[in-house]
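U., I forgot to send this yesterday:
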Amino acid sequence: MAKRPQRPRRKPFTPKRPENPFGTGNARAVAFDLITSAMRGGERLEHTWHHHDGLAKLSPRDRALAVHLASGVLRRLRALNAKANQLTDGKFAGLSDSVQWVLRLGLFQVIDCDRIPPHAAVSTAVEAAKAVSHQGIGGLVNAVLRRAVREKEHPPEATDEVASEISWGDRLSMPDWLVEALFARYGENNAERINRWANSPPHHFIHLSKQGGGVQRLNELLAQAKLSPARPHSEFSDYVGVETAALASDSPLYSEPIGWVQNPAAGLVVALLDPQPGDHVMDLFAAPGGKTLAISERIGPDGSVLAVDRSPERLRRLNENKERFKADNILPIEADVSGLAERTAPRILADVPCSALGTLPKNPEVRWVKAYADIERLARSQRIWLNVASTHLDVGGVLVYATCTLTRVENEEVVQAFLEANDNFELESARAFVPERYVTSEGFVSTNPPFDGLDGVFAARLRRKS
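Result:
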C-alpha cells in the first residue's frame, strides 16, 4: 500500500525581527545602532558616530540626544544591569539580547536623562520591546520602567549597611580589573574624581587650522547651523571646544578647512615629536589623521609625511582630510607596519594601537569590550611595533612612541624594555617641548585626565645614537 504523502510541517510562528526595534530616523534608533555596534568591539564609539549615516540625517538637537543616549547607556552599563535585575526580580539575564538593550535604554532615559519626559521613554521602550518579542514582554518592560519612575520620584531610604555593600565597580560602573588599575595610578582617595571624569559627557575640541578663518569664521558657520559658538581653550590657543552636534559628518565645519577634531592632549604628542619646516616624517598607525594634519602644517610644503595605516576605511577618512586641507605633503600608504618596505626617516611617530583607557568619556564601551588579558596582549604587540618602528629611523633621528591609555604595562614598561634591549637609543626628556605639568619625573609626557580634563595620553621621545 502506497504511503500517503505527508504535509510539510508548518514552521512555528516567530515575529519578524526588524533591523532596529526603534525603527529609523529618530534619536533612539540611532542610539541603539551606536550602542550595539560599539559593543561588538569594532570601531570606537567616537569614530562610529562621526560617520553614522542615520545620525547625519537627524536635526542637530536629535543628533546630540542620540550620542548622549548611546554614550550614557555605555557609561552606566553596570549600574543599569544591576537596576534592571532588581526591577525584574532577577529575570533580566533571561531576556533576549535586544530586549535587554531596549530596557537599558529605557532605564537610562528614566533615571539619568532629564531631556526626555518619563512617559515618552516608557512608551517608546514598550513598543520597541514588542517589536522584537511579544505583547507579554512589552507588559514586563512597561511595569519595570514605571516602577523605575516611581522609585526616582520617591527614592527608598538607603541605609549605611546597604551603601557599604556596594562595590567600587558598581559605584564607578566599571569592571573590577579597571577599578584596580585606576586606583593603582590615582589612589582610592580620588575615586570621586575618577568617577566624574569617566562617567561624565566628554568635551569635544577642534584643532584650528592655520589656513582656516579661525574662531570668527567657525562661529559664523556654527551660527548658520543654529549651533552654540565655539569655546576657546584656556591653555591651548589652537583648540576650541564645540558641542556634539557640530561634529557629525555633514557638520558645517567640514565645508571649509577650518580645523579637525582633536583633543589638546594629542597636540602634546606632536609637540614632543617637534617636526620642523622641510622635515620628512613617518607617521605609523596614522589614520584617521589628526596628528598627521598637525605634522603636515608644521613641516610645510617642502616637507613630507608618509602616513601608514592598514585600515582602508580609516585611510579613506585620512584622504578626505588631505583633500579638504589641500595637504599635498601627506603621502598615505595602506600597509601593515610590520611588513613595511625598507625606508628610513629622521622623525617617526609610532602612535600605536592600545586599550584606549585614556578616552573613557568618549569611548565608554572600551571598559566593557576589553579585559586585562587584552592589555597584556596589546603590550606584547606594542613592544614589537616599537622595535619595528626603530628600524626605520635614521641615525641621530627622533622616534616618538605614543598611546592614549593609562596603564604602565602599555606605556612606561614598553619603553623601558625597548631601551634595555637597544643601547643605541636614549630617552630624551619632554621638558623642552611641552609644559612642565605634563612631564613625569622620568621625562615622559603623561596627562592625568581626572585632574587636568584632557584625554589620557602617554608619549616618549627616543633618539637613535648610532
